[in-house]
Amino acid sequence: MRFFVVCPGGLEVPLAQELASIAQRPDCKALGAWVIDPTPTSPTGGVGLAAPLSAAMALNLHSRIASRVLLQMVDAQYRQEEDLYKLASGLAWEEWFSSKQTLRVDVTAHRSPLKSLNFATLKIKDAIVDRLRDVTGDRPSIDTAFPDVRVQAHLTATHVTIYLDTSGEALFKRGWRDEKGDAPLKENLAAGILAITGWKPSQTLFDPMCGSGTFLVEAAQIALAIPPGAIRSGMYGDDAKPSRLAYRPLVTSAHGFGFQRLKPFNEASEQKRWVALKEAAQAEMIEKRKQFPDSGSLGISGSDINERLVAMFKGNWQRAQLPGLPVTRQVDALASKPPADAKDGVMLLNPPYGERLVIKGGRGQDRTAGDAERDSYEDVEEPEDRFAYNLETGRQSAKRSSRESLKKLQSEEEQDPKFVEFLRQFGQHLKDTFGGWNVFVLTADMALPGQLRIKESKRTPLFNGPLECRLFKFEMHQKRDATADLK
């Protein structure tokens, strides 16, 4: 079978590395041969591979970077909308799902000659519905919000590829996020950034503006070998209950994955493989928990000036099935210090993008520039031209929309001297306090290194939704001991 694993723009290389790692797992090798496409040299929005049908279960369970796992149904040439109808109606959809299930169809395009993407979507939807009605005598209903089955098509200038979505809800929805909290950073982007930093569970990790803790929760789950799909797969059973600090999770085991609603995956042989994959993951988790018995042993910590977000982080940590409570403090980033006994480590943060933030804390105090209550990227509207970009799949270029958003953010920043001064102070604080550390900052502000007054050693282009960002790496040098120089 052919798959296309979708990821946020800029994460194709770490995704390819992750897919290779998943394919080498003994339980995944047992499924059959995997052949991963060459790593893309330019942004493609994902990575393709050939693997057994069962690989869809392993990918949805284990991939931290993927947004969706798409199963290819057909790839063929087309010239007009009627060609799309013929191709889609010729597929045996009845072998994959029934007319009693609800359906959603999405189409993205790049350089397509068709004038209306909506009409192309309609033709593919009609083809599927007509096929099931002709074969079964009944037609499925359309549900754009919570469909049982999702079909995705991608148009190029000459070819159309039609996929079945085996993920259902996007994979960044792990099931531990507080749904009432701001969500500026998707979980799979956080995991991909962790991969880019080269951080290992043996290293100290610190986020001085941790917000609701996305980076830190993802890192802790990596250290403890907790699959990103653990909650959605039902691996915790009744134990995966929201904590008293958390709200109802967005996605639970009741939602599961898209493949669980497709006929071939419900056959006894595939069900047996699914159980085996989860049992192997459970065994690995048990072994890792012996290595890291409590949160203090993980070497993962954070701080934030916002009391409400610190409480939210604690709730997310507990619902993510991590031990105890996270090592965290409510403190301004300008007063943050390296964790005890940590002479060097990795700092990773996603600061606010230039807006002046004033929030009432639990003690009635105003919170300003250092506050991590930042605007959600998901508040940035999708461009009307869907040929330019599709937020669900990431298959299109977001340069136009992201640049407009970036200009807006940068103009706001130019009008906020207090935030500029905060960045200058924070840069000096890094130099004074975090010598020997590697500091990684995700931002949409390309001028950030100059505002921190620190020269970056590396910058990696990334997309967070429609926003074009950079992951800056700063190597903080140890300060020389002046007294030692006098000896």
UniProtKB/TrEMBL annotation:
UniProt-listed SUPFAM superfamilies: S-adenosyl-L-methionine-dependent methyltransferases
Stretches that traverse the bilayer: none
Residue numbers spanned by region Disordered: 359-412
GO molecular function annotations of the record: RNA binding; rRNA (guanine-N2-)-methyltransferase activity; rRNA (guanine-N7-)-methyltransferase activity
Biased composition (Basic and acidic residues): 363-377, 401-412
InterPro entries on file: RlmKL-like_Mtase (IPR000241), SAM-dependent_MTases_sf (IPR029063), THUMP_dom (IPR004114)
ATP-binding is among the record's keywords: no
Keywords attached to this entry: Methyltransferase, RNA-binding, Transferase
Every THUMP domain range: 55-166
SMART domains: THUMP (SM00981)
Nuclease recorded as keyword: no
Entry-linked Gene3D superfamilies: 3.30.2130.30, Vaccinia Virus protein VP39
Pfam families per UniProt: THUMP (PF02926), UPF0020 (PF01170)
CDD domains: THUMP_AdoMetMT
Name of protein: RNA methyltransferase
